[in-house]
Design the sequence.
């Protein structure tokens, strides 16, 4: 087999190679900056092709090749294998939609594509950037959000950045996009049982389309922030996985700490967190002002009178269940320092082990656990073992609801008695939950914090009897 034939065979079989070829064809002279996240996106897309995934959501920062891979290349590569495939793509504006269409048409008409997929032939009847058709009656229709799709049906729908950034603060504008998705787009499948939807976007708001799909849709979600806000293991193509640890950069060669700091200064914390970290949070909270917290650089020079841990426990580890959270606090008089935060979904046996190990690791003097449901069992199970390391357990019985407990905790924060680290890997997630409360899916960090602060307020004079088991 000649080299040319080998290359054509490779382009047909290897979507990754096809992406490279198309990039250099559209951007001659530019370097293709490779990275592991490209293999993660390819893996997710190939699950759509195989039928394992019918609903896919991918969130990642701007300029991460998302549109080139997903909106331009993937439909063309699929049509190369199946020329009667019907694809509908949509973005927030007609100009951007036209550009994606022109780039796709340029590739499809190229000599290398025609030789790689000789069965694909353009119909003379429809041959425009907005829509082109194959002689086998397959097509690609490029439209914008709100565009008419009356009488049109397809096999694959791709939505690429469907919100206009300058309209994202408008409740009406966001709701129009979501209603168009629910009431117009989802009815466009020729075969609803086999039709697939791919949504790719940067986050812009808690209540954007991605937020709606995470909350209400049965979507497989590939989340790729510029800096990981939690540790996750991400499958890669063709095999293996990547351990994307909390604090790791997605693509440091392109989005380094220096570049991201500059972007953050330009955009502001709110937009930066949404677009680059995929963690949108409200600008202001009705309960808490973030500036009330004092910050500290290091605990090395601090001598704590005691170490207290506050646990908010959950009993299930499913995708939609709450986390168990432990906040660790150092106490010096009336001032309290948040030293560490542990957050994980666990079943009771693992939770019990972690209550003990976290207390031992931090040399805690006291562990606070809500005395209800799973907490009552954990208190009983851990009490003797913790006494062996001179750590006491105290059950906390709530007498008010979550919102009241958090409101009762804020005066100490406003008074400047609560100190948080200047930097911590978990800080963005922590801030987002506290600032968004009570309008959040998970409020475990809020509960842990308010439990500790309310305990501290009620024990201002803190007799703290020191009792050892003999």
Sequence:
């Amino acid at each position: 087999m000649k080299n040319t034939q080998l290359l054509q065979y490779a382009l047909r079989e290897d979507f990754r190679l096809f992406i490279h070829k198309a990039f250099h064809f559209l951007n001659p002279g530019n370097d293709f900056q490779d990275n592991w996240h490209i293999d993660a996106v390819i893996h997710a897309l190939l699950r759509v092709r195989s039928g394992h995934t019918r609903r896919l959501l991918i969130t990642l920062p701007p300029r991460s090749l998302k549109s080139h891979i997903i909106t331009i290349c993937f439909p063309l590569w699929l049509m190369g294998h199946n020329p009667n495939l019907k694809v509908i793509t949509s973005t927030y504006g007609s100009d951007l939609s036209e550009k994606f269409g022109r780039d796709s048409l340029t590739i499809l008409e190229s000599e290398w594509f025609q030789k790689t997929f000789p069965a694909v032939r353009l119909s003379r009847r429809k041959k425009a950037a907005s829509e082109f058709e194959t002689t086998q009656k397959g097509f690609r229709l490029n439209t914008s959000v709100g565009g008419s799709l009356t009488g049109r049906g397809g096999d694959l729908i791709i939505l690429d950045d469907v919100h206009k950034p300058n309209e994202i603060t408008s409740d009406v504008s966001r709701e129009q996009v979501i209603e168009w998705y629910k009431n117009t787009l989802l009815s466009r499948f020729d075969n609803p049982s086999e039709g697939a939807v791919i949504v790719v976007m940067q986050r812009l708001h808690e209540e954007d389309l991605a937020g709606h799909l995470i909350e209400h849709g049965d979507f497989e979600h590939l989340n790729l922030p510029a800096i990981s806000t939690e540790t996750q293991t991400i499958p890669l193509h063709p095999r293996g996985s990547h351990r994307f640890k909390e604090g790791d950069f997605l693509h440091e060669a392109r989005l380094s700490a220096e570049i991201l700091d500059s972007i953050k200064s330009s955009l502001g914390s709110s937009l930066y967190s949404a677009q680059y970290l995929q963690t949108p949070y409200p600008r202001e909270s009705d309960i808490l002002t973030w500036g009330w917290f004092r910050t500290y650089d290091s605990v090395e020079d601090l001598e704590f009178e005691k170490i207290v841990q506050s646990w908010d426990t959950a009993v299930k580890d499913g995708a939609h269940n709450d986390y168990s959270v432990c906040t660790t606090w150092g106490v010096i008089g009336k001032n309290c320092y948040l030293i560490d935060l542990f957050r994980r979904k666990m079943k009771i046996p693992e939770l019990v082990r972690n209550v003990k190990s976290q207390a031992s690791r931090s040399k805690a003097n006291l562990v606070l656990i809500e005395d209800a449901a799973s907490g009552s069992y954990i208190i009983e199970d851990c009490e003797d073992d913790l006494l062996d390391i001179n750590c006491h357990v105290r059950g906390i019985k709530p007498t008010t609801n979550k919102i009241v407990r958090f409101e009762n905790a804020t005066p100490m924060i406003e008074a400047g008695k609560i100190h948080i680290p200047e930097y911590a890997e978990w800080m963005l997630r922590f801030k987002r939950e506290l600032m968004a409360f009570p309008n959040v899916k998970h409020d475990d960090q809020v509960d842990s914090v308010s439990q500790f602060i309310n305990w501290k307020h009620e024990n201002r004079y803190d007799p703290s009897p020191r009792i050892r088991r003999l």
